Design the sequence.
């Protein structure tokens, strides 16, 4: 790979930035994934300008053209998922299987929205005034600024870029500086798809410079962001100043409830997958496991056995269940929360240690705490690492109350064999996605995704609901005679 620099993509051209970012493999820090151009404010402003020009044509483009382009992008991602998934796993630290799965899912988003292009229907009705016809239809917005986090380096970009393009918008994408490779590959695939120049632009660089310029521009019509609450709040305030639309997906503190009548194997499988897969670096991760007293001890024993069987290691090694933490900063944060939990009186069952393996990387063992309360800092703040806490409760009602007692509300889950309690939980859980006998992580692409409270702001992402963000309604009145 040597000195090749992966450049920004602006107006259909590959352009250098003012510097380069070195993309490191967190499973093996001697492995450099590549050198990526680092853009500045000027690059971002150029991208916004050309996107505005390109929007004029793209917003009027035929639906068949859009469908064919999106379908082509999706098909290539799926066909190349093994190769691209390896790059993704190398730059982010999730396992190869998870990396490949993420690329396939990214392709599915493009193929789904390729089909959605043809379903962009309006409504016709009659006016309250006799003889007047009314049409309600949807139009593209303009330029959409897209800012993505490091934990799903391709899927988040895909689930935002695909609907933005499908509904006739132009895009400027700013991926997380830590993981530019997957977004760059997506841009390269898009560059050969037949999409007119300037409709899609990639500007890599820092959030503070490129992200800030993008989200404070008066020349974008919408900004969609996934990342931390702190940055999301800042972006929303800037967007309001420009009267730009804003959609935010942020952190969470998802609860998985395990009731006395739960199937024990299902409970353990869901808890382990939800808490630790993806190294716990998922906004949908189960970090609070709320367990009813009758099943508590046997559940903890069986979950401990399951954790002991998990293999932590280099993301590319076959048989590894838990890859690397994304970087030193996130690892330090995880270890800091381990200390906070212990100081608060949480009882460590196992894990939470820094691991030194064959390759030098950011590894830690999955951690389980018991005897925690929902008031502890470890149960209030998002850690974003492989750390889960058990909270013991006496009843279903207490479990529901504890699960809802959070500043966040992205996903929640319940493991039970009771149809009545599952039904009650679905109605009363204050989260955006509720899972019954399933892990809190793992969602579909054809239905809406999003949360409540500090987890989300603005219209839902994914599925057909995404069009509420990426289109604007027009109401036409006409008197034909
Ligand atoms: P982050 O620090 O908020 O960064 C997210 C993105 O925003 C990055 O591209 C970042 O750039 C950029 N950014 C930073 N400052 C900015 C600014 N002033 N203006 C515009 N953009 C700016 O979050 P992260 O560390 O990447 O991701 C971890 C967090 O994301 C966690 O809290 C997690 O819960 C959340 N998350 C939520 C979801 C969800 O769907 N709800 C999904 C994934 C992650 P840099 O590249 O320079 O950092
Ligand atoms: Mg990296």
Sequence:
């Amino acid at each position: 790979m040597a000195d090749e620099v992966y450049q920004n993509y602006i107006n259909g051209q590959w352009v250098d930035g003012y510097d380069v970012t070195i993309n490191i493999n967190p499973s093996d820090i001697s492995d450099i994934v590549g050198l990526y151009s680092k853009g500045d404010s000027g690059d971002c402003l150029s991208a916004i300008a050309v996107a505005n020009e390109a929007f004029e044509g793209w917003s009027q483009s035929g639906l068949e053209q859009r469908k064919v382009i999106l379908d082509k992008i999706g098909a290539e991602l799926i066909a190349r998922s093994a190769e691209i998934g390896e790059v993704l796993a190398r730059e982010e630290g999730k396992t190869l299987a998870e990396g490949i799965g993420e690329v396939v899912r990214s392709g599915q988003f493009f193929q789904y929205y390729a089909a959605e292009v043809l379903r962009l229907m309006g409504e016709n009705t009659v006016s309250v005034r006799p003889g007047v016809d009314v049409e309600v239809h949807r139009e593209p917005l303009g330029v959409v600024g897209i800012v993505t986090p490091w934990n799903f380096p391709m899927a988040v970009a895909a689930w935002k870029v695909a609907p933005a393009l499908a509904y006739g918008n132009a895009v400027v994408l700013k991926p997380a500086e830590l993981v530019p490779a997957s977004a760059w590959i997506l841009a390269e695939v898009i560059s050969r798809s037949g999409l007119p120049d300037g409709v899609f632009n990639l500007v890599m660089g820092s959030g503070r410079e490129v992200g800030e310029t993008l989200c404070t521009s008066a020349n974008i019509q919408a900004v969609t962001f996934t990342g931390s609450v702190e940055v999301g709040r800042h972006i929303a305030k800037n967007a309001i100043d420009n009267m730009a639309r804003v959609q935010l997906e942020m952190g969470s503190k998802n609860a998985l409830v395990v009731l006395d009548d739960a199937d024990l194997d299902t409970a353990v499988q869901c808890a382990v997958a939800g808490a630790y897969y993806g190294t716990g670096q998922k906004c949908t991760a189960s970090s609070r496991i709320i367990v009813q007293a009758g099943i508590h001890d046997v559940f903890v024993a069986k979950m401990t056995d399951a954790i002991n069987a998990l293999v932590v290691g280099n993301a590319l090694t076959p048989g590894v269940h838990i890859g690397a933490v994304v970087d030193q900063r996130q690892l330090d944060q995880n270890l800091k929360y381990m200390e906070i939990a212990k100081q608060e009186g949480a009882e460590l069952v196992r894990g939470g240690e820094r691991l030194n393996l064959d390759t030098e990387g950011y590894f830690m063992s999955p951690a389980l705490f018991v005897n925690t309360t929902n008031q502890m800092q470890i149960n209030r703040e998002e850690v974003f690492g492989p750390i889960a806490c058990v909270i013991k409760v006496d009843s279903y009602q207490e479990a529901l109350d504890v699960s809802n007692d959070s500043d966040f509300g992205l996903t929640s889950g319940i493991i039970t064999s009771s149809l009545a309690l599952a039904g009650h939980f679905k109605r009363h859980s204050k989260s955006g996605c509720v899972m019954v006998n399933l892990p809190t992580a793992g969602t579909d692409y054809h239905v809406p995704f999003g949360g409540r409270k500090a987890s989300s702001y603005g219209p839902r992402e994914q599925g057909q609901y995404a069009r509420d963000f990426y289109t604007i309604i027009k109401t036409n009145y006409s008197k034909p005679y």
